[in-house]
Write a structure and sequence with these properties.
PyrdxlP-dep_Trfase_small (chains A, B, C, D), Aspartate Aminotransferase, domain 2, SP_NH2Trfase/AEP_transaminase (chains A, B, C, D), alpha/beta, transferase (chains A, B, C, D), Aspartate Aminotransferase, domain 1, 14 strands, 15% strand, seven-stranded mixed beta sheet, alanine-glyoxylate transaminase activity (chains A, B, C, D), homotetramer, aminotransferase (chains A, B, C, D), 13 helices
């Protein structure tokens, strides 16, 4: 059943859920299995080992939770904090806003550091707060690595530097939903205590698996964290890890095999090559935006995102109309502007299983849509700018040399 | 990748996850989609409408939550109750035990009514408690419709009768994980306030969707329920139901299309025919057990389950060895005995997408395994007993007449 | 197993096999079935009825043969002709050449009308031959509707006019392999006696089904045709058509369900809309070629093909290198130049399940490759030319209005 | 679309097409590819090498032809023989009859050696003919290894012995359609000149690939064989083998990947273990038939088939009614009696991807159907007889020890 059939492929350029590679779709095309048989633990063991590589951690403990990113957030918070705990959280767009909302509803004392949407987290204010907090009332820094609503990437290394500089023991909790597996993420090097992502983002799987990784310090924190939790309780997982059966409740067999295939593809391409590809796609997109004479929602180069670009449209255009036409006429799925930037930006997601010609097809489509809605773009201009850059940077495909 | 390849089909007879019908596997064999496009809400709308039919409710409100049965439990409890609330809960096996454990950890005051494993919920004690509770301190009755660990089905109609008899306003919360879509479940008639199931049980989907249905009274209770909840908060869903976009966070596109296909198959077969088929499979299994000279873990006929049969083995046999051999030699997946009945029972799940000859193949396998482990079964005896019954009850397949 | 993994989608722009729509892949994702059960004839009956629509015939009799286009050719010839029979055949490219080779090897007396590769069939010579052939020694006119090697479409209506004008009884045999379901094909109106295509072309299925449609006159011809045939003998099919079981030997269950899904998609889009889409894609491609300053292999506008464009490269470039780089660097599959035009042309297939943004992605890729191999193309020029045209012609997607 | 939906799995026990293993279905769940890219030849090379193992040949040359078994027959004959050539052919059932019919229609002088249906090929008569044929007028011996209609396996080693004994140069052409990959087949040891099978039989793939293997002597024979052939001409294949591109026309990408997966599974199980499994399934079936008090159509133990059992029913029963009821009531697909044995036998196919419990489910079903149609079978009797044998012979699954 397809309610809205259109010829050819759907061009999926929302910043998640993203395109699933054919080998991953194949791997998930299967019947259920008894998860208590020896096969599923054997598979799980390899996944828990290998998934650490995408976090760049050797000391972290991963959890593959049957949930979404929202659940992964809740897991990160409730396992490490107690109601009333002070968190410092950065409001820079819709997803950081939602996380902050969750933090409040879970009973934490959230110290919100707000920036204009399009700016990164204000780390100067963080520095100030850390400097002042000699009593260590701040229990956790909560930060979104890449704000999906505005296409802003925060500098996590700086956060760690500040924490170290002020010898502050706060936990460092990171939403890597639209970064991990696409942007370089260094859990151990940056001293991240909890990092998390969702299966439907750069891992290029269906939605349904929240992947959370906890540092030894985060695991230690669970012992005193008084937040109520059952479904999301890491200790239930750890109990079954020790038993070697791994699952406190039923996992999705299909997602486990899918994750195996997804990791295999990422390692076959090479994690650093995956990052380089995202860097190329991000840069190419930004060059196209510039060629069109439009502005990136991201206000400074230091924050630009290689997984999603939020494009500002002139005031006389409603960006929702761009998204609607993309879908109605070109079978192209773009991201809407959300909340404060609704109507003002449309988003091009360029993460996950994607290559350069797919992106160029999307950019060519955006050009036509811009014309459709009355923006005087020069057809081909964005594609030309992107191509000129890509021409010099796309490597040969290693398996085909 | 198959870690443990064996020729032919795996015979999957655990009481979940169960076999997925081919048309459902096909329906899920797809790329991701933008869940904010008009297509996904259009699909969701039909699902929310049709899923009510498997609960037999017209007044309930369903939630399709990206979680497992454990999460569905948590959703039922936290949306309707406050910490400290008194619940009456029946401990009759491993899954009711886990739910009770969750209730305790969520901070409720759980009044546990325990029975021997193999017995149903003691409703006489419930009557007594309700009679005594003139102050209405009991806020909820929590009961498992079908205890998967022991193959015991509780009588929900009686629970409702008792509540009505004593004019008790307690909420009536039901775990229908291994019953709904297989056993007749009458949410409206029985005045159930929250009913829930998991996608991987009788719906015959992969794991990953907790399906929860709330009565108007349950929805009303959310207004005063003080349990902390975010991911599982129904009000976030209701907000998006009103907007017509339906999703507070990303759903699994694949499970949505899979649910559509699963419901279509159930309605094509006819819900009452689905129940009749489960009744046949349950009865046939019990006749085989009897023919083998073994005992059903379920102690009285009134509690027998048409979705799972827990078979008691003689004391000189370890039931785990039966499960191990089934898998190692016959590519047959049986259910282990859990907790108190570990080593003492093995379980045959006969729910979901399954027909009579599949069951007879399983029963023939069990006979050989019983021989393997030293039990003097007469080969063919169980199959003969089951067949004799089935011969008179299997209908012609409607689409093939 | 993927020998040559590359990130993202493969951009498949060879003129067959073409991209398979997701719903068709899904429909074929199934186990085998007993083809003698009532289900398979019931399915076959709908296919035989509906497949006639893509030939625009009501009087023709279709055969779904487990073979390729080469086998379909053989079926057309051996069922209607006898060794020694004179055929008039047009040599205008690699596929007409191969068909002529087959005709010779099957023992016919082939009267070859050769044109330059890049030209259409010389119908003036046909007129002359028909005029001269008062003895009716010509038994069949064999013509390729669309020569896949050069991107040349012949005018079949003119062929019929000539046959009628000279009242010549020769059979009119047409290879529609790269035309049917993409270009307007009017079997009844044009008096075509045998028309044929292959499943992997515009029908967008896997290879493996040769679809042949015979006029009543062609069926009559089988009675006197002395060519040896068994596997390809239509009379074996006709025998089983009468019995209502349809199959003289085992069909591919998967391709039958796939064909059902493929036809459903075509009818949902509307056959005339399918033609219009191919017309748009063809025109857009030719405009890009022109913008690049390159020449189409097709020498006159009257012959241009809306399913494949063969692009001539300057003498200092080897077109094979273009195809090689496309695959090695851009995950783009282009068609090689074959035989006489090897090294001189590369081909862009634009038929089957394809939409405009997919094509623009391909064109953007070709521009980069042209740069790679030293041709001084202006990046974005082809995309701009194609977009300018498409912008004014792409309709809204009917299911999404 | 499923015209005839029934709950649970279809029990597919026709002697082809057979059940496809899940990993093979997965491997074929893919888009088309350019077969001229380097990937497809690389894949093809491994297939041509590995497929020889199932024929037990090192000197043979395999051809993977997009056709069915009927086409594979035609390929074997037309590549090695000339019209008028004398063949000795054994008529022992429907499939040998069809092959003989083909031989006649292809213009050979067929010397038919007929036996009762249920008997094997009369090799005494062959001996006599070879002895008499000092002029070597016999150009080929054509024999079906396993006659699928009657469940009769012929002794190919004896044929070779007779040829050697009489130093007769006739080609030895073998239909291994329902034997190869299930029964031990020794092309080199037995001096078979052409052996062939179809993908939908013991290889457990969809229909659509005829696999033909030619000895050096058979390849030599192509030089003088005057039978008309184009689509089936091995020399076209050999030309492309030399070029390293392998394909004279478009192969099914899906079947190539499917064959790769199928061979991988066979080699993982071990070819000799595959044979042993078929031997177990065949023996178990025959023991059940005996326990039911019915007769095997195969008249002597030396000819019994381990891939299909044709069961004779009492004269007062129409075997077609058994097949009809199996499908209509039990979702069980059995084989019809064909031609001379129509109404007299039903067939249980037990080849390909199948295990013991699947067979026991089928046998339990047959018992109920026999009751349905009025045959006084003792329920459970066949299952008991089969189980008693299997209990002592089923090995542990190697990957699970």
């Amino acid at each position: 059943m397809d309610y809205t059939y259109a010829p050819g492929r759907n061009h999926l350029f929302v910043p998640g859920p993203v395109n699933i590679p054919e080998p991953v779709i194949r791997a998930m095309n299967r019947n259920n299995e008894d998860y208590r048989s020896p096969a599923v633990p054997a598979l799980t063991k390899t996944l828990l080992e290998d998934v650490k590589k995408i976090f760049k951690t050797t000391t972290g403990t991963p959890f593959l939770i049957p949930t979404t990113g929202t659940g992964a957030w809740e897991s990160a918070l409730t396992n490490t904090l107690s109601p009333g705990d002070r968190t410092v959280s950065f409001l820079i767009g819709q997803f950081s806003l939602l996380w902050i909302d969750q933090q409040k509803r879970l009973g934490f004392n959230v110290d919100v550091v707000e920036s204009d949407w399009g700016q990164g987290a204000n780390l100067d204010i963080l520095a100030k707060k850390l400097a002042e907090d000699t009593a260590h009332s701040i229990k956790a820094i909560c930060i979104v690595h890449n704000e999906t609503a505005t296409g802003v990437t925060n500098n996590l290394a700086t956060v760690r530097k500040l924490l170290d500089h002020y010898r502050h023991p706060a936990l460092f909790l990171v939403d890597g939903v639209s970064s991990i597996c696409a942007l370089d993420f260094r859990m151990d090097e940056w001293g991240v205590d909890v990092a998390l992502t969702g299966s439907q983002k750069a891992l290029s799987l269906p939605t349904g698996m929240g992947i959370v990784c906890a540092s030894p310090k985060a695991l230690e924190a669970t012992k005193t964290a008084k937040s109520v939790r059952v479904f999301f309780d890491w200790n239930d997982y750890l109990k079954f890890y020790k038993l070697g059966t791994y699952w406190p409740y039923t996992p999705s067999i299909q997602l486990l095999y899918g994750l195996r295939a997804a990791l295999d593809l990422i390692f076959e391409e090479g994690l650093e090559n995956v990052f380089a590809r995202h860097s190329r796609l991000g840069k190419a997109t930004r060059l196209a935006v510039e060629a069109w004479g439009l502005k990136n929602c991201t206000q400074k180069e230091e924050w630009v995102s290689d997984t999603v670009t939020a494009v500002l449209v002139p005031p006389y255009i409603d960006s929702s109309e761009i998204v609607r036409r993309a879908w109605k006429r070109y079978n192209l799925s773009l991201g809407l502007g959300l909340n404060k930037v609704a109507g003002k930006v449309f988003r091009i997601g360029h993460l996950g299983s994607l290559n350069e010609l797919q992106l160029l097809g999307c950019l060519a489509g955006v050009e036509m849509i811009l014309k459709d809605v009355g923006y005087p773009v020069k057809l081909g201009s964005g594609v030309a700018a992107a191509s000129a850059y890509l021409l010099n940077t796309i490597p040969l495909i290693p398996s085909r040399i």
